[in-house]
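May I ask you to review the protein record following this short note?
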Amino acid sequence: MQTIIEPFRIKSVEPIYFNTKEERTVILEKAFYNPFQIPARDVLIDLLTDSGTSAMSSAQWAAIMLGDESYAGSTSFFKFESAVKNIMGFPIVIPTHQGRAAEKILFTILGGKGKYFLSNTLFDTTRANIEFSGAEGIDLLCAAGKLPSVPAPFKGNMDIDALKNKIQELGANNIPMVIMTITNNSGGGQPVSVENIKAASAVCKENKIPFFIDACRFSENAYFIKKREAGYADKTIAEIVAEVFSYADGCTMSAKKDSFANIGGFLAMHDKELATQCRNLLIITEGFTTYGGLAGRDLEAIAVGLYEVMEESYLQYRIRSMEYLTEKLIAAGVPVMQPAGGHAVYLDAKAFLPHIPLHQFPGQALVCALYEEGGIRSVEIGSLMFGKYDADNQFVPAQMELVRLAVPRRVYTQSHIDYVSEVIINVFNNRNEIKGLEITEETPLLRHFTAKLKPVK
């Protein structure tokens, strides 16, 4: 197969500061074994997140200089609004400073005690904003999505039978919204098919429940549909995107993912009454309705990025990069989510470190080992992020124990990725030396951001 090259040239660079394994051991201890507490300068390859960490294009930087910083009715807002309307088809567009701000507004209005939000899989901030309102988030991931090492084309799908049963069990009046996350971040960056989106939408319409899409990685999901779903090979990415959103009542979006922006997000919808409530809360918490906590220059960058991210040459390179790293790890026997996801490679920490019990957080232990060995910063998506305590204060582990290596867009080259694979394989070959961790300090919500841990003796 012909080599797939990066569909861009590098115009500006920033330095990487190298450190030794001995220095990283001290840094890790000072950070209480939590990668969020490690200073960025001390990280060699930063795969903590792909959110807001991408490289913007020359066209985006040029657009930034056109930013209209007017408080109300900014020209930049209308460019931004037009892009969202043209691509996604929603008539109402409400800017926010990032995706979780859109979630906070939406779930503050619709949530509350006794309410349930159903999803294929909710990501951390989505679930936290739901729970903060007093409501409960319930994941209904398809069976294939729960088996990391078994390949399937659309492992991010929702279990439609489970959706029907849960609506019947809880009552449609108690379910303000069903949310489809594309791609399924907590489920390994796995895509969702049009067939599944259409089926979930139909169930929601039948029960008069609003159906929203968490659209952070809408373009990557569309590329998977083009490559894997029957009937879509000859459709453009824009056509697939338009069809996907045609089945939804609205969406939340973090523009820090599939629009290359360093900040920004939005709510988009059809419902005028809900939009009025959202805008009222937006003014209190974010800013006026035509800037929503963003500078005009940010709105300009997002408007350009939303189109750039749908370029097929970019998506081919992006998805192939994930496959490249995944294939190298599989060849070395490393347990990894299969097939490769859209924005990240996910290690199966449960299979990687079977000697570490779940209550000692094997995913977090692996995250720390990768940093200590090679200065790679990643994030645990397992029992530190999603584990809970029951009514008797007994530990309830997460469904899967994953470590996500989220690759920022247009930032790292193939040699960086080769280095990442070498570090992971070295850690895997010495995996029996890795010890578990215990929490010494935690918060009730989103504890993984600030938790303090120490090695188990």
Notes: The first strand starts at residue 45 and ends at 46. The chain has a mean pLDDT of 95. The radius of gyration is 21 Å. Residues 312-331 form the longest helix (20 residues).
